[in-house]
Specification:
With 219 residues, the protein is mainly α. It has helices spanning 15-38, 44-51, 55-61, 70-84, 96-107, 113-128, 133-158, 162-185, 196-208.
Amino acid sequence: MPTAPRSTPPPRPSLTERRKAETQLEIARTAAALFTERGAAVTAEEIAHTSGVALRTFYRYFRAKEDAVVPLLANGVQEWIDDLATPPTGPDALPVREVLERAAHRALSPADAPAAEALRWTRGLLRAMPGDPALRAVWHRVHHDTEEALRPVLARLTGADPSAVRLAAAAANTAMRVAVEEWAAGDGAPDGPQGPAELVVRTMRALTAGLPEMAGRTE
């Protein structure tokens, strides 16, 4: 199946940008822990104080307290998209559907203790969302942005027309979201047989089974 030429990788972020991202992620971890423990009662002041930053610094990074969890939720998503952007080619080329499944499985497989902890915090956030509509809106916004970011990646992988790419991005993104939500609603360990990595393979297969574009190879 024809594919578009590969784009040049973006330049590495500057040291200042990386430090800012690290600070935002640290605040996000703190916010997730507080939301998990106390739900909507958490304040921006508490998040800032517990993170060790001034309140004005907090608001320089985030518009609202719920926005503070975005870096944590988006971090794994970005790793998934980056993984998809460099699929195996040539003799090792795989069907796009399998590339999606493998990348999703890796993204939701905790490689170390911090990754497992991030998944547990995500579970806590999802359980807190029914009582906090603003927090739930952040979750859906992250997935909307994910779907938008997936489109150019899948366009390169499949060479499909824009409407088919849009449908494929929606299916893949929904598979990730549903897998994490289903895991968060239960008691399975992050790395167990009922963990998000195992669930996402099943949801990805179910939601992409009827998309012929996903059967083409990545070469």
